[in-house]
Specification:
The chain is an alpha+beta fold and about 230 residues long. The protein has a single domain, classed as Endonuclease I-creI, CATH 3.10.28. The chain is about 30% helix and about 15% strand. The strands form three sheets. It has a four-stranded antiparallel beta sheet with strand order 2-3-5-4, with helices on one face. Strands 6-7-9-8 form a four-stranded antiparallel beta sheet. Strand 6 and strand 7 form a beta hairpin. Helix 4 crosses helix 6. The longest helix is centred in the last third of the chain and has 19 residues. About 35% of the residues are buried. The N terminus is likely disordered.
């Protein structure tokens, strides 16, 4: 007899598919190395520099499906960059992450009472997620170290406990490891868009089958029968 662990296929209340896309989802880009720039208290612009061109084009589509313009350009460092124009509808996001002054690049911080959603987490994975040697890595902003622990804390209510990589890591990141946690992460962010598969979480395979514990009593009965046969033979 064999037992197989049941798989829950229900959609999580927090998953990316649980609600329609909205501008608030773009906060996931600020969890990694995305930047938001305020223009006084009238408008704001969101930008993110990424490592691969596919990330820039996928993110540009994500911006547009949320009603925001987005241009893919080359940043000063030469890497792909996605950037919006200055927009009034991005001002609430800037006020939350930059504070009341919201002028220029005043330094972002995780807002008080911040609650991470699956849609935000999907944006985070699209911009800075990658496979690591011991789990899945979500990149964090090296210029905002005060945010790192707060972001680890924000993952816990979603059922994805994570650890912050130490200073010896090449790049600062939050690591999610373990089959159950990676399955929870995958449920939250949904399926990868075309081309993103190599950078998406892959839970390790579960054991195909576990032998039922009824085998132990059977072995004991067999041992008792053998002992009885020996006694009778004597």
């Amino acid at each position: 007899m064999f037992y197989h662990e049941p798989v829950d296929r229900t959609i999580s209340f927090f998953s990316a598919e649980a609600s329609g896309p909205g501008l608030a989802d773009l906060a996931g880009l600020l969890c990694c190395h995305g930047q938001i720039t305020g223009f006084g208290r009238t408008a704001a612009r969101l930008s993110v520099v990424v490592e691969e061109p596919w990330r820039a084009h996928v993110l540009a589509r994500e911006f547009r499906c949320r009603g925001s313009d987005a241009q893919v350009t080359a940043a000063e460092c030469g890497r792909p960059q996605v950037r919006t124009s200055f927009r009034v509808d991005l001002l609430p996001l800037a006020l939350r992450w930059l504070g009341e002054r919201c002028t220029g690049d005043s330094g972002k911080a995780v807002p008080e009472g911040f609650r991470l959603s699956g849609a935000m987490l999907r944006m985070w994975a699209l911009a800075g997620g990658q496979q690591g040697p011991q789990g899945y890595l979500l990149g964090v902003d090296p210029l905002a170290p005060d945010m790192h622990e707060r972001l680890v804390e924000a993952l816990t209510p979603l059922g994805v406990p994570a650890k912050l990589l130490g200073p010896k890591a090449d790049q600062p990141a939050v690591r999610v490891s373990g089959r159950r946690r990676l399955e929870a992460l995958l449920e939250l962010i949904g399926e990868p868009p075309p081309g993103a598969e190599p950078a998406w979480p892959i839970p390790p395979p579960a054991e195909e089958a576990v032998e039922a514990p009824v085998r132990a009593p059977v072995r004991r009965a067999e041992a008792q029968a053998e002992a009885l046969d020996l006694a009778v033979g004597q």
